[in-house]
Request: fold
Amino acid sequence: MIRVLLVDDERMVCAHLRAILSRAADLEVVGEAHDGAEAVEAIVRLAPDVVLMDIRMPGVDGLTATERACRLPRPPKIIMLTTFDLDEYAVRALRAGAVGFLLKDTDPEDLTGIVRVAADGHAVVSPELTRRLVAAFAPGEPARRAARQLVDGLTERETEVLVCLAEGLSNSQTGSRLYLSETTVKGYVSRLLGKLGCANRTQAALLAHDAGLVSRG
Reply:
């Protein structure tokens, strides 16, 4: 079972999400929280696999809660929820360790699949939306220099895999492009995350953009 925690200050939103997710036999909604502070407490207490986290909440917002949760010894996979299709909080949340960014008007039929993908550790931000976010909120020069220094420590093959990851390719698509098996690609991705100090594929993709490996826009 994939354990899911719902976090939103609007209880009707939580009820709606619960109704959708409860239809799936492999998903279990283990609890709800209605502000960021309550969310971190629930994460510690309930140990969910995936958290659907509203960005904008009174008191402790979703961004702060995500930053706190991702510092825990075993953080859950956090998907940020918002009604806005482009929000400065989104990139900050992804950099903090969230695995995805999801609009609240996402088709209900897609939601259960998205939760499963996140539980497996994959990014749940579309390549198009990632490019828009990165282009809109470009890093400063210190961040670019730091990213380039990290990328310079990669091998040529690792850099090629990172570029594919930043372009939003799956492991199988990366393998087809680079003539590698999917298992080999998974190994490269795992080593990349360790070398770059990234919690997930989304953070690594953002770092690749910061380093200039993939063009913006």
